[in-house]
Amino acid sequence: TPRHPGSLAYAMAAVMWVHQFRGEASLALEQARTTLAFASEQGFPTWHVHGLVVQGWADAELGNTDAGIAGIRQGLREYEATGARVWASCSPSMAACPTGKRCWTRRKTR
Questions:
Q1: Is 101 in contact with 63 (CB distance < 8 Å)?
Q2: Mean pLDDT along residues 23-33
């Protein structure tokens, strides 16, 4: 058991988000899976939810749009069930975004 599992879970999620924001779907997917496994093992439902949402985004980016949308929706349902509200304002854009068109990432300039 890590000395500070909550801090480690946050750090894992931060790495996952960096990959997402950079449009690195394969890396985000890999880190989302790692975050999901750790969050489940340690009993962190909020970090688990973030892993589901990023995993869904990555799936959509990689062409698995239906699975991606389903993953994001599952994550949003589970997030709502935790009673947490911090990320609630992001929910509409998360639900509308998974089109596989990099809608959450910055546009690359030439």
A1: no
A2: 96
Q: How confident is the model at residue 89 (pLDDT cuts 50, 70, 90)?
A: low
Between CA 28 and CA 61 the distance in angstroms is 10
Q: Residues 82, 84, 89, 90: what is their CA dihedral angle, to the nearest 10 degrees?
A: -60
Question: Distance (Å, rounded) from C-alpha 76 to C-alpha 72?
Answer: 6
**Number of Cβ atoms within 10 Å of the Cβ of 101:** 11
Q: Which residues, in sequence order, are CB contacts of 41 under 8 Å at separation 6+? A: none
Q: Give me the residue label for tokens 């389903």.
A: 70
pTM summary value: 0.79
Residue-wise pLDDT for 40-54, tens only, equals 999 999 899 999 999
